[in-house]
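Anyone up for a design puzzle?
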């Protein structure tokens, strides 16, 4: 059993996407890619001007987008006919496969919006699959709760609690953890996986080696290993996300992520010729 330590601490950059939604982007910039994860955005603001434009209709091919709302409401609509209103605590796990056009618009005009979007790569053999939209109501998700911690499980297993995403090729772990002051969160990860912690709020210490103090909204890449230990210096909230690397070449073109540049150009061509949407 190998202990897991901090490999890199990364401050997100401020970016804007969709119709001017302000967000903090970490994966997708630095690091460019953390196999199988292509992008991690944290969007959040109390100022409606930072989010009201939303994400009007746009295409995707070759990836999965996982949106997790912590606060506020978003409305999703896509070319498969799926529609859903996400409220605080809800998750949508969308497999874009060979082609989907979707929009994500705020269903709120005031108040605090806060959430995450994670992009998970798809292996070549799944990239042209039919799109699939999975909506997960907060109430249907397992939560492990004891006096020291509360863990909401979007994917993976903690004790008897299990997330709704099962049989997935990257064997994802996606936990939302709340840890009381001075308490420890111990968890066994697969040594083949790439894993990270994203500190939402608080102050934590990971592993046994010293590392610099981590601020809120910071990405912490972990070394490969089995035993993860996170200690809360003060009451803290963080995401733990882990997945099995796909190990294939990556060609990016905005919302299209394929294996080669030719495939990205094909996606652009299909989109402009109206040949894009898979149903
Ligand atoms: Co999108």
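Challenge accepted. My sequence:
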């Amino acid at each position: 059993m190998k202990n897991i330590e901090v490999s890199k601490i990364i401050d997100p950059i401020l970016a804007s996407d969709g119709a001017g939604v302000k967000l903090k982007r970490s994966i997708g910039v630095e690091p460019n890619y953390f196999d199988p994860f292509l992008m991690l955005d944290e969007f959040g603001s109390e100022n409606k001007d930072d989010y009201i434009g939303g994400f009007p209709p746009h295409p995707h091919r070759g990836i999965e987008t996982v949106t997790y709302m912590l606060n506020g409401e978003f409305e999703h609509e896509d070319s498969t006919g799926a529609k859903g209103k996400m409220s605080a605590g809800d998750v949508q796990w969308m497999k874009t496969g060979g082609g989907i056009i979707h929009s994500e618009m705020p269903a709120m005009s005031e108040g605090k919006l806060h959430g995450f979007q994670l992009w998970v790569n798809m292996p070549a053999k799944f990239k042209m699959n039919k799109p699939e939209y999975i909506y997960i109501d907060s109430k249907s998700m397992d939560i492990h709760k004891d006096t020291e911690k509360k863990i909401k499980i979007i994917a993976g297993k903690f004790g008897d609690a299990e997330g709704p995403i099962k049989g997935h090729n990257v064997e994802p772990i996606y936990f939302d953890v709340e840890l009381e002051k001075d308490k420890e969160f111990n968890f066994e990860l697969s040594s083949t996986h790439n894993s990270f912690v994203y500190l939402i709020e608080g102050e934590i210490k990971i592993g046994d080696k010293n590392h610099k103090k981590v601020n809120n909204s910071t990405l912490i890449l972990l070394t490969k290993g089995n035993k993860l230990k996170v200690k809360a210096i003060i009451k803290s909230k963080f995401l733990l996300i882990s997945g099995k690397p796909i190990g294939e070449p990556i060609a990016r073109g905005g919302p299209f992520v394929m294996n080669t540049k030719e495939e990205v150009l094909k996606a652009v061509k299909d989109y402009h010729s109206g040949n894009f949407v898979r149903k």
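A detail worth pointing out: Residues 78 and 102 are 4 Å apart (CA to CA).
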